[in-house]
Write a structure and sequence with these properties.
mainly alpha; 3 helices
Length: 75
Amino acid sequence: MARSDPANPRYAGKLDNQAIAATLATAVGHWGSGAQYLFETIRHLEACGIRDRNLWRLQELVAVEIGLTSQLSRP
């Protein structure tokens, strides 16, 4: 997902939080999952005394998406 450069062919444009959460719930890279990256970002911001309610809401949505994904993959 390339959100910052509209000239990039992978540019996603404006996404709603649900679409972002769905992507983060399934994204995995060399350094871990998108969900873990979000969690660590929130944790480090909290350690600095910064509470971002939008990131917390996004984390809630990601948790729901992960739950839905795991339910769908059960036999």
